[in-house]
Amino acid sequence: MIKHSQAPAIDDLRDLYKRRVPRMFYDYCETGSYTTQTFVENCTAFQKHYLRQRVAVNIDNRSTESTILGEKVAMPVALAPVGSCGMNHADGEIHAARAAQKFGVPFTLSTMSVCSIEEVAAHVEKPFWFQLYVMREREFTSNLIKRAKAAKCSALVLTLDLQLLGQRHKDVKNGLSTPPKPTLMNMLNIATKPRWALGMARTKNRVFGNIHGHAKDVEDMADLVAWTHRQFDPSLDWSSIDFIRKQWDGPLILKGINDVEDAKIAAKKGADAIIVSNHGGRQLDGCSPTIDMLGPVVDAVGKKVDVWLDSGIRTGMDIMKALAYGAKAAMIGRAYIYGLGAGGEQGVSHALEILQKELSVTMGLCGERTISGIGRHNLLNSMKGGK
């Protein structure tokens, strides 16, 4: 059980997470590609965007409730897809999905999850979202979509910014793998994480569940790693969305937009929502922080399609700033992973509670009582688009 006094902020959950999870998975989560400039600036860029403090306004009976894709939510936040989520805590995807369901926000399962689509579906009562990577092997991709439909997934999140992998130096140094290779260094580190090790010993979910047993010619871990590395598809282009649309008739969300021209194309493709995201700083290093791109994207396409924000959100104040620029929702990744690694389902719930409380307090100090009332008037930044 994580007490509020023990972890009153997301950063405190990160500290607990670091102590309880093996180093390679902490480093996998808490780093970016190459120089990590974008990873760092995704968070620090929020500090350049100032909120307007208002006083002597009736802020009683505030509510963070909103809607996402027409569904009522406790606050305008969704849990982002995170690869190897189940390596941060045994059965991590199940724990996160349950916490999200109980709290009242959407959970997104990654293609590269440890627990499979079917495994998560068997442990939750409400539909969740599924994040799709378009693989070179199109038959495998089509089967993933069929499996998501069979599991009654309520939305498909298509990630567009992983046609090839940006290198994360710490992952190379740590020899990152799912599960960890039994090297002396790994075993010594895992020995200092008894809670994590005991949980992993009790579960059967230790590999990429959506791939193992479903991909052709994958017999062992070596095959699985090799298959995964060669399947990300550099030929992915806008026509691939048409390929997806022929097979998926539910809500389609496009993730990985960090440019105004790309946002315009995505809107024309008929997406139900687009997510301004740079993959948490894990792909193109040196690109713009997403909060800096949000205003221009909303100005360009916000009347045609819902725009959400991903990457860099660590506080309720960050969520408030995203909403003020016109985002209809925010996606959190690392913020809930810290909670998951620190305390499983209860830790994810704790992370959501922290963010909701911070959002509610920030709304009040800005003179707002409802999510729908938030807008550019809550920002001190005077220039359109937040520059």
Structure in words:
This protein has a single domain (10-378), classed as Alpha-Beta Barrel (TIM Barrel), CATH 3.20.20.70. Helices cover 41% and strands 10% of the residues. It is built from 15 helices and ten strands. α12 links the parallel β7 and β8. 50% of the residues are buried.
Q: And the CATH topology?
A: TIM Barrel
Structural Rg: 20 Å
Helix proportion range: 40-55%
Domain module tally: 1
Biggest sheet, in brief?
8 strands, parallel
Overall mean pLDDT: 95
Low-confidence stretches: 382-387
Structural class: alpha/beta
What is the global morphology? Answer: globular
**Care to count the β-strands?**
10
Summarize this entry quickly.
The protein has helices at 10-20, 23-29, 37-44, 92-103, 117-121, 138-150, 169-174, 184-191, 194-202, 221-231, 239-245, 260-268, 290-301, 316-324, 334-365, and strands at 66-68, 71-73, 77-79, 108-109, 129-132, 155-159, 252-257, 273-276, 306-310, 329-332. By secondary structure, it is of the alpha/beta class.
